[in-house]
Amino acid sequence: MRYVVVSGGVLSGLGKGVTASSIGMLLKSLGYKVTAIKIDPYLNSDAGTMSPFEHGEVFVLDDGGEVDLDLGNYERFLDITLTRDNNLTTGKVYSKVIEAERRGDYLGKTVQVVPHITDEIQDWIERVASIPVDGNGDQPDVCVVELGGTVGDIESAPFIEALRQFQFRVGKENFVLVHVSLVPVVGVVGEQKTKPSQHTVKELRAAGLSPDFLVCRSEEPLKDATKEKLALFCHVDKTHVLSAHDVSNIYRVPILLEEQNTTQMIVDKLQLEMREERPLFDSWKKMADHVDSLEKEVTIAMVGKYTGLSDSYLSVIKALQHSAFKVGAKMNICWVEAASLEPESKESEPEMYSQSWSDLQSADGILVPGGFGNRGIEGKILAANFARVNNVPYLGVCLGLQIAVIEFARNVLGLEGANSTEFDEDTPHPTVIFMPEGSKTHMGGTMRLGSRQTNIQTEDCVAYELYGGDMEIHERHRHRYEVNPDMISQLEGAGLRFVGKDTEGQRMEIIELEGHPYFFGTQYHPEFKSRPTRPSPPFFGLVKAAFSRIE
Ligand code: GLN
Q1: Handedness of CA 445, 448, 453, 454 (dihedral sign)
Q2: Catalytic residue at 525?
Q3: Which of 395, 424, 480, 527 to mutate to test the pocket of ligand 1 (most atoms within 8 A of CB)?
Q4: Which end of the chain is more exposed for a tag (fewer CB within 10 A), N or C?
């Protein structure tokens, strides 16, 4: 097993995840099987209880793991299926060690960060690296390990120490360290500053780790003199100082690294074999060019909760983009703050109100993504109503499906006050209700989570077509509430179709509306399985329908 460890310095959000995924993709293009582990040095067991508005989206895996969004990047870039254990957190490591201590595994010993925590980290990495992820059951050849946070944080210290020891455990020839840093430009002359990188490498080296490669995020390509200086002060070969400057689209990142001979240099360091023919790499290049060549644009209004962090809906954005690339258009996402559509905001923030409505009205399609909590619910219901009544393509994901059903119950069945018990416990018409297997006292890992089978009920529906004629589909879930089974026949009687159900026929998974160009809702989150060249079917359906309005 070869390990490519990717650490980061200076500040977070430098694109460490994309760098790590890109390197993984380059190695995969040589025919190697690549897996990935993300280390998050926070105390939470997993990302499930963290706010997406602070920390970015919670990504959901097949096995129900609620993990960091970087695992989504890995799945998309490497076209693999990861497990919850591929996301290692301080919380998980400590739980495991403390559990072992209670069992008496260390009887007589003082349990310490070194060696007990650091050993557990190394054991974890070695164990998880060998889990097959490509669907064929083959053990991976290379494991990319991304260390979250920035070097120097108190939180990441045990992991740094574990990785320091790890290079000896696995042998230095099987271990390559890539450090991602920032090269800012300051002043009128536009000088590229190397000092932040010097400092972070110093920190790394003080901890006993020396980077083999330095990947420098910058606006413009690194100048030769900058590279020279970084090489000199950071104890890295000049050819190993890589420029990761801004590019036109994300698919260009692996290409950018390839152009600087990165693949060959990693191959040399890890004693792997280079290959002339690399169809996977060629198709990436094609994809990157295709994305840059797009001229037409399709606009989707995304009606959600916003705090300015677009990472909160990362996979949804990706699924929309993948779909747009396939129809041959650029994806323009128009963010609509759901609460601003509500009548109250007409008084409190009239400009936002009219802007939001005009955005909604001018979009080619409308999307209501997943969500929790009360804020903006009425606005979302208004958006679904607008889409239904005006024949605007609509996709509702998870909460978005529930919203569409509530809207239908209120305005088609005339059930005033129909709602989800999540938002109104005393609603006279509980249209969406709490699922028995959920928990109201424990929030972590207690939803209906992960991959579940949906049975398509009939060949005569949009879902059947979108999913390429499959009657059994598997998508990922993350919810506590569901459409009230007692209301199905009433809703169906009025024209709402439940064309996808779970294997017991109890849970409503897909809704469609007869006679509408595209009105689709899924209780599951299809965005998590979208791939650049294989867009998620429900998203593709939305974008295709939206695009055909322009065409
Ligand atoms: N809040 C809703 C539920 O728990 C929807 C969840 C979601 O959109 N992921 O069922």
Answers
A1: negative
A2: yes
A3: 480
A4: C
Please say if the pLDDT value at position 244 is more than 90: yes
Strands 175-182 and 66-67: unpaired
Q: How many CB atoms lie within 10 A of CB 132?
A: 15
Locate tokens 């028995």: which residue? 436
Q: Residue 439 and residue 460: Cα distance in Å, rounded?
A: 37
Does the beta carbon of 370 lie inside 6 Å of ligand 1? yes
Q: Provide the β-strand partners of residue 450.
A: 477
pLDDT band at 14 (very low <50, low <70, confident <90, very high): confident
In short, whether 481's Cβ falls inside 6 Å of ligand 1 is yes
CA-nearest residue for atom 6, ligand 1, is: 479
More confident residue, 56 or 145: 145
SS3 131: coil
**CA of 62: how far to CAs of 38, 227, 525, 529, in Å?**
17, 42, 11, 9
CB of 371 within 6 A of ligand 1: the answer is yes
For residue 319, the CA-to-ligand 1 centroid distance in Å is 19
Q: In this structure, which amino acid lies at residue 223?
A: K
Distance 371 CA to ligand 1 centre (A): 6
The predicted model gives 2-27 an average pLDDT of 92
Residues ≥6 apart with Cβ < 8 Å to 16: 6, 7, 8, 70, 146, 148, 180
Convert the pLDDT of each residue in 158-217 to its tens digit: 999 999 999 999 999 999 999 999 999 988 888 899 999 999 999 999 999 999 999 999
Among the ranges given (4-18, 154-168, 366-380), the one the predictor scored with the smallest mean pLDDT? 4-18
> Ligand 1: distance of its center to the CA of 181 in Å?
37
Extract the tokens encoding 514: 């007869």
143 is catalytic: no
The predicted structure's pLDDT at residue 551: 77
Q: Which residue out of 377, 440, 481, 509 has the highest number of ligand 1 atoms within 8 Å of its CB and is therefore the one to mutate?
A: 481
Tokens 């983009």 label which residue?
Answer: 321
Q: Within a 13 Å sphere around the CA of 212, how many CA atoms are in the beta-carbon half?
A: 19
Give the closest residue (by CA) to ligand 1 atom 9: 370
Predicted pLDDT at 306:
80
For the residues 325-335, what does the mean pLDDT come to? Answer: 96
**One-letter amino acid of 483:** V
Nearest Cα residue to 318 out of 39, 89, 14, 18 = 18
| Residue among 303, 315, 422 to mutate when testing ligand 1 (max atoms within 8 A of CB) | 422
Q: How far apart are CA 68 and CA 87, in angstroms?
A: 7
Which residues are bridge partners to 366 per DSSP?
A: 301, 394
